[in-house]
Amino acid sequence: MEEPVANMIPSASVSVKGSGMSYTFDASNSKDHNGSIAKYEWTFDDGTSAEGAIVSHTFTAEGSHAANLVVTDDDGDEGFANSSIITATAATPARLPAIYSGSSLSLTNSVTTVGGDVMVRGDVTCNSGASVGGDLVATGDVYLTNTCHVEGSIRSGGSVTMNSSVRVDGDIDAKNAVSLTRGVRIAGEVRAGSVGATDGTSLAALISSGAVGGVVTGATAAPLALQEQAVVPVDPSAYPSSVWKTWTNFVNEVARSGAAPSWSPGLTTAPGCVISPSPASVNTSSVLLSGSSVIDARQPTSGCATVSLQQLTLRLTGDVTILASSARLINGVRVESADGKPHQFTIAVPGASGVIAVPNGLTTDARISVTLRAPGEVSIEGHSDMRGAISGGAVKMTGSAAIRD
After folding, report:
1. Burial class of 326 by CB neighbour count within 10 A (0 to 12, 13 to 18, 19+)
2. Which residues pair with 185 in a beta bridge?
3. 36: how many CB neighbours lie within 10 A of its CB?
4. pLDDT, tens digit, for every residue of 23-67?
5. 237, 181, 232, 191: which is closest to 214 by C-alpha?
6. In degrees rounded to 5, what are phi and psi of residue 297?
7. What is the pTM of this model?
């Protein structure tokens, strides 16, 4: 009688491909020398598991990770392998300009961007004490006067005109002419279709006077093609860590926390389109927003063509996004971190129209980054001091406004 042949233990093999936080784990090179592999079982060090010869996994925490593989053959024997150690790193979000305007822009008075770029589809005027803390990029003409200060470089798809006491700390690239006077100061190079002085001063005299610190060339800058700003996502899958709330849910929650009187519309299913400290709204000026959330205030769900936040201090413990058909921040709104951690506050208008208006200023603490995005106009009036970015089909800024990187 022949003795049965002993089963051979299967051989497990793991290869890994991927980057950032998402990886593919491949066990298809595992072998059973006297049979076949019947099952592939994966265990990840974040406590999750999967089955299959090839699986994909996205880690939720940055750092070093590994996967354990168990293969089982058709005789029930198991083979084991560990993946190599991988280092998961979250992708760095693309840096948004401090201001993006889809049409011509005027920066005046004390409007400043601190460390941020300004990008404009159209012409730009910068005058009075306005300043740009990064690069200034425009598809059209750029006109700078008085004490306008650009800390970075200027790129123009048209012409650049400078006079008075204008300062540019970087280079200037213009498709057409660069015109300047003795009083301006350009630290870097000037590359343009032509370079000259509006007061008849020779180019040599401009250079010797210190108006231009770098080389002047006649090279024409390449045409500009500004990237369109991304469409505002409205799918919950785009906000995987956020709880979705309707505008009514949001107002009701805040009204309850503010101990609004029982007769207050803020406690009803029709709370109105304005959230304010009034007893007829939420009965408090301090609004605590716990955790990450998306507040859907668009007209189809809220009944509000425009939602308004009036004279409130919003205190965040997570990232908060308000999706609205249009929005207004009235009588000085402030956004703070309630837990001392960095958080993102976004007001975004999906679709092809809609505006965001800040008629009386917006301020934030150093832990909060704000994004205001609308296909129509984004307007900021009065004193504002905020970290973050503004993006609109048109941007209008007046008064004392600082946008910090």
Report:
1. buried
2. 167
3. 10
4. 889 988 988 888 888 999 999 988 889 999 888 888 888 888 888
5. 191
6. -110, 20
7. 0.75
